């Protein structure tokens, strides 16, 4: 495992916890029959269900942390052993002999302490995570009651407003001494990267002690913080990770660390320095280094904004709120993409754009024409929610006035009424020879969302229009040439590929 893998474990935990919290909020509520919704009854059931909610939080959290602990232990031990081999190999190349036999079957006491501290640090965050999820949901219920009883907003608006802070912050359960909070996935990745760096430095120090060499030099990084910029590329005496002593000529590693060098999340390492053999890289221009660092920090800020608004969008109950937050996601995503074009040294990392909470696919959002990508293979791996939702939507489409549906489809896709009529007939009325027998097409989740936008003339996407053109051409081929559905489908795909266009849209908007 890598620090990124550990971060992914906690990202998945955050996904699962927030999805569960939203499902809990939705419990006992039928949005399609709003007249049957009773706020006081829903509120009472939510309060009564808090114990079950807390039990689920405990189960999910413990499962995630236990998985992470195993990965951390394995990763740090492998990091130490690998660093011993690397440092010993460098010693051989420098003519210092092979010191690897000295480490066979020997555990470094310092390394064991580092690993123990890393495990203990992560484990203490387990309870902070549980407390955050419990207190956050309790605060949501309290705020929702105040907003709903005020009479100044609708129930969906009250729920969105009450849930806003919870979703906006994410699982920011780690608090620093200055009061700043950080997301658990970001903290875990940072903590493991820091522990890994410390273990690597300790392994190198253990090798240097055996060799009696205590001079070190750090690697040179072109995109580094102001603290590290002062110390990178300097030859130092290692009195922290090995038993180096002052020589009156070189500064000490302990002095550099006191000046914030090798800070948490630092990307610098220390390498053995041998006079006349070790080559120190040229230092980059100070102004350029500062500019690259500033650019990287701005990129991190943009990524945080994208994640925040994705959580708010995917957790929204009121359609207006969903559209407002979706617009902010697109705004920040466009700004982020443009920024990366301007700064070629930066690289896009899709994992950093993940929302933390990926959504719950509430039908109310889709029924108001919102572009929903909340349900996917990660949040709904067995298609249970998507299949059920698609069935309900197809049934609702069939119950609408046919002429109105066709007219709106024609308007949305910019086709004539005859073409829209063919598509309606092809999708909902005609029988086809399918893999499981003869019948109408089975409900499809993605197509249902496209249809909803087309039928309501709201927020129509490019792939929605491609779907209409695909179905119309497929219908014509089957009728004029007498070809079976699967053959006609393959021919049509070459000109109008709905699935390809859909996937492209999902990737561009963070739904894939």
Please, could you describe this protein's structure?
This protein has 512 residues and is mainly alpha-helical. It folds into four domains: 3-209, no CATH class; 213-284, no CATH class; 287-350; 382-508, no CATH class. The protein has helices spanning 3-26, 39-48, 50-93, 109-150, 155-169, 184-211, 226-229, 253-258, 286-314, 319-342, 363-367, 384-398, 402-413, 417-428, 445-456, 462-481, 485-493, 498-508, and strands at residues 174-175, 181-182, 215-218, 235-237, 251-252, 270-272, 432-434, 437-439. The strands form three sheets. It has a four-stranded mixed β-sheet. Strands 1-2 form a two-stranded antiparallel ribbon. α9 (286-314) packs antiparallel against α10 (319-342), α13 (402-413) crosses α14 (417-428) and α16 packs across α17. The longest helix has 44 residues, at 50-93. It starts with a helix and ends with a helix.
């Amino acid at each position: 495992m890598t620090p990124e893998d550990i971060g992914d474990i906690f990202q998945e935990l955050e996904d699962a916890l927030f999805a569960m919290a939203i499902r809990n909020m939705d419990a006992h509520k039928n949005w399609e029959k709003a007249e049957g919704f009773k706020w006081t009854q829903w509120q009472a059931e939510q309060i009564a269900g808090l114990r079950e909610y807390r039990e689920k939080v405990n189960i999910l959290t413990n499962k995630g942390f236990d998985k992470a602990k195993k990965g951390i232990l394995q990763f740090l031990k492998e990091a130490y052993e690998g660093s011993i081999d690397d440092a010993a190999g460098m010693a051989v190349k420098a003519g210092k002999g092979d010191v690897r036999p000295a480490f066979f079957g020997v555990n470094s006491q310092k390394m064991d302490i580092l690993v123990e501290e890393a495990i203990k640090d992560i484990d203490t965050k387990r309870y902070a995570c549980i407390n955050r999820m419990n207190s956050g949901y309790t605060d949501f219920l309290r705020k929702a009651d105040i907003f709903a009883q005020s009479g100044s907003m609708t129930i969906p608006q009250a729920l969105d407003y009450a849930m806003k802070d919870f979703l906006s912050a994410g699982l920011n359960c780690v608090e620093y001494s200055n009061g700043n909070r950080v997301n658990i996935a970001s903290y875990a990745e940072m903590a493991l990267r820091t522990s890994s760096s410390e273990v690597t430095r300790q392994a190198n120090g253990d090798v240097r002690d055996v060799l009696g060499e205590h001079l070190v030099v750090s690697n040179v990084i072109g995109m580094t913080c102001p603290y590290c910029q002062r110390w990178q590329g300097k030859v130092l005496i290692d009195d922290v990770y090995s038993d180096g002593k002052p020589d009156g000529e070189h500064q000490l590693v302990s002095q550099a660390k006191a000046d914030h060098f090798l800070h948490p999340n630092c990307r610098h390492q220390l390498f053995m320095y041998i006079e006349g053999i070790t080559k120190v890289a040229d230092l980059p221009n100070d102004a350029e280094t500062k500019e690259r660092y500033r650019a990287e920090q701005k990129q991190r800020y943009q990524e945080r904004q994208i994640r925040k608004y994705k959580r708010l969008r995917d957790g929204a109950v009121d359609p207006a709120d969903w559209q407002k937050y979706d617009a902010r996601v697109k705004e920040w995503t466009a700004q982020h993409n443009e920024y990366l074009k301007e700064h070629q040294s930066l690289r896009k990392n899709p994992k950093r754009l993940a929302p933390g909470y990926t959504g719950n696919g509430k039908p109310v959002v889709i029924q108001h024409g919102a572009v929903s990508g909340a349900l996917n293979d990660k949040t709904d791996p067995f298609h249970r929610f998507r299949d059920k939702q698609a069935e309900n939507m197809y049934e609702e489409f069939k119950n609408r006035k046919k002429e109105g549906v066709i007219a709106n489809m024609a308007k949305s896709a910019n086709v004539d009424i005859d073409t829209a009529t063919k598509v309606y007939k092809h999708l909902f009325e005609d029988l086809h020879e399918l893999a499981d027998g003869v019948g109408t097409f089975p409900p499809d989740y993605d197509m249902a969302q496209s249809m909803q936008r087309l039928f309501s003339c709201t927020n129509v996407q490019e792939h929605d229009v491609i779907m209409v053109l695909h179905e119309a051409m497929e219908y014509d081929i089957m009728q004029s040439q007498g070809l079976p559905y699967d053959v006609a489908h393959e021919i049509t795909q070459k000109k109008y590929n709905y699935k390809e266009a859909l996937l492209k849209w999902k990737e561009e908007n963070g739904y894939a």
